[in-house]
């Protein structure tokens, strides 16, 4: 999947998430159920599901922003693409920007609530866990562009459901209805047990086809920046019973009008 395609899938999930604001501590709500929102969505019509983190890390040697995204795309129907996207933007030195998507295999261990990704060419791997016991996310990424080990992402405040309940209302795309949900977390980034002083943002979302979408027409080729789209069939024009083109003119002629 091209980077711009993924960003279309994710929308504006990470806009403004890399921030230099001082880290603040908030009480973690005991009623927040992150585990059920972290596990894979079981909807059989799921088209794409993704998890995304944007943050910033500073230490004595470097200062950089990073993005890590795991996505599982099942559209068009019958196909499947699993991907790791990594990005790094250095804020010091030559200010190099690096990015690369890796295709491979994404697995989920329900016992440990951990996603594991392995690149098909063995160039990159990632592990991302929600540790419910410690109430933290744990992230590790190995790739030529970005290397993160033993990163702890500590939620600040409650899980944020978009739209109040996590469900986003989406206008029909190319005439067909879809469903989507989205949850987010502000997190404090800790590396090697040390707080980084910056907040990052984790987001999780998915989009699915609605059943009446499937019944209308098989999937059509998609533009590269549209999440889901089927070409809407033309609707027949409604006519009154017994109506014939030109009928009114003939009736008027017979009446001498």
- Provide the residue-averaged pLDDT: 74
* Domain module tally: 1
Sequence stretches where pLDDT stays below 50 over 5 or more residues: 1-31, 212-255
Number of helices: 4
CATH superfamily: AttH-like domain
Order of helices and strands: HHEEEEEEEEEEEEHH
- What is the CATH class name? Mainly Beta
Q: How far do the termini sit from each other?
A: 67 Å
SS class = mainly beta
State the CATH topology: AttH-like fold
Give the percentage of residues in beta strands: 35-45%
The coarse silhouette is globular
Number of strands: 12
Topology summary:
Elements: H1 3-10, H2 34-38, E1 46-58, E2 63-73, E3 81-90, E4 97-109, E5 114-119, E6 125-131, E7 136-142, E8 147-155, E9 160-161, E10 167-168, E11 178-191, E12 194-209, H3 211-216, H4 247-254
Antiparallel strand pairs: 1-2, 1-12, 2-3, 3-4, 4-5, 5-6, 6-7, 7-8, 8-11, 9-11, 10-11, 11-12
